[in-house]
Amino acid sequence: MEQKLRNSEKRRAILNILKETKSHPTADWVYDRLQEEYPDAGIATVYRNLKILLDQHEIMKINVGDGLDHYDADISEHYHFMCRDCRRIFDIEPQQLNIGIIPGNIDGMSVEGYSIMLSGLCSKCCKKKDQ
């Protein structure tokens, strides 16, 4: 029997925190922001609700190679770019790369999703290097 999840205020607050940023934050960053509205919330509450939001496909988890999980509430088709100097993560729209992968069947396999992670220098860091 599947357990029905209740719609929690803290979970809605966590989702709103993620929707209001483009920074692709870590759980600790989300926890710090949640503390402003819910000082009684613990880090376990954040991790538990991030997992629920992931399981419900409300958010995505991004691995950028820094050993930390980053989260994104923008679940539309897009890719990510991480600057190797400033470590910021940016969204890249598919048309910017002129590639597209459509989930579907490939050789009998059911493709449900994919991830593309780009890295290099962001425009600000490129300008700094040129100076």
Going by helix content, strand content and strand pairing, the class is: alpha+beta
- The parts where pLDDT drops under 50 for at least 5 residues are none
Shape, per Cα inertia axes? flat
Sheet with most strands:
3 strands, mixed
What's the helix count?
5
Strand and helix order: HHHEEEEHEEEH
- Gyration radius (Cα, Å) is 17 Å
Helix percentage range:
25-40%
Strand coverage percent? 15-25%
Q: Could you tell me how far the N terminus lies from the C terminus, measured between alpha carbons in angstroms?
A: 63 Å
Please tell me the overall pLDDT: 87
Spatial strand sequence of the major β-sheet: 4-3-7
State the total count of DSSP E strands.
Answer: 7
Structure at a glance:
The mean pLDDT is 87.
Fold and architecture overview:
With 131 residues, the chain is an alpha+beta fold. Helices cover 36% and strands 19% of the residues. The protein contains five helices and seven strands. The chain has helices at residues 9-19, 27-37, 43-55, 94-97, 123-130; strands at 60-63, 69-72, 79-83, 89-92, 105-106, 109-110, 117-120. A three-stranded mixed β-sheet has the order 4-3-7. Strands 1-2 form a two-stranded antiparallel ribbon. Helix 1 crosses helix 2 (27-37), helix 1 packs across helix 3 and helix 2 crosses helix 3 (43-55). The longest helix is centred in the middle third of the chain and has 13 residues, at 43-55. The radius of gyration is 17 Å and the shape is flat.
